[in-house]
Amino acid sequence: MSEKITKHLVVPVANEEDARETARILDTYEYGQVTVVHIIEKGEGVPDKLPLEQAEQRASNAFGAFRGFIPGIDTETAYSRDVVTAIIDVAADVNASAIAFRPRGGNRLVQFLSGDTALKLITDADRPVIALPEETKNE
């Protein structure tokens, strides 16, 4: 029996602006349940990028921005050094049918230096990964 690929999407967001743009684009498509995930990068022996309280506020702001377009979402905050693994783990935990994300720009050098998170997500995921376009289909 086949399952609808958009039955339950896990949608990672990095910050308030990213959440707003991702939700705006996703809302032009049909989808089922949506779980929005924000990964707080934790140090594991090295200093954290942001103080925990500030990082958790960033997650809360991102969720709020997403709800401005799609109110009925579930949210998850994960704490990990490895963003891609954390996204995949959340997708497994909530039994998502797919992961949908909006690739963030950057030139090839930036992508190389960052380890190209989008490529790692696409190649490491154990379920379908949907790359949303940068613009809505109605623009």
Tell me the layout of helices and strands.
Layout: E1 8-12, H1 16-26, E2 33-41, H2 52-67, E3 74-80, H3 83-93, E4 98-101, H4 108-114, H5 117-124, E5 129-131
Parallel strand pairs: 1-2, 1-4, 2-3, 4-5
Helix pairs in contact: 1-2, 3-5
How would you portray this structure in words?
Residues 7-132 form the UspA domain. This is Universal stress protein. The protein has 139 residues and is of the alpha/beta class. The protein contains 5 helices and 5 strands. A 5-stranded parallel beta sheet has the order 3-2-1-4-5, sandwiched between helices. The longest helix has 16 residues, at 52-67.
CATH topology: Rossmann fold
The fraction of residues in strands falls at: 15-25%
Secondary structure class reads: alpha/beta
**How many individual domains?**
1
Strands across the major sheet, in which order? 3-2-1-4-5
Q: Fraction of residues in helices?
A: 25-40%
At the first level of CATH, what is the class? Alpha Beta
Order of helices and strands: EHEHEHEHHE
Low-confidence stretches: none
Q: What value does the Rg take, in angstroms?
A: 15 Å
Gross CATH architecture: 3-Layer(aba) Sandwich
Number of helices: 5
Average per-residue pLDDT, rounded, comes to: 87
In CATH, the homologous superfamily goes by the name HUPs
Find the count of extended strands (DSSP E, 2+ residues). Answer: 5
Calculate the terminal CA-CA distance, rounded to whole Å.
Answer: 36 Å
Largest sheet report: 5 strands, parallel
Backbone shape: globular
Protein name: Universal stress protein
Domain UspA: 7-132
Pfam families: Usp
Organism: Haloferax prahovense (strain DSM 18310 / JCM 13924 / TL6)
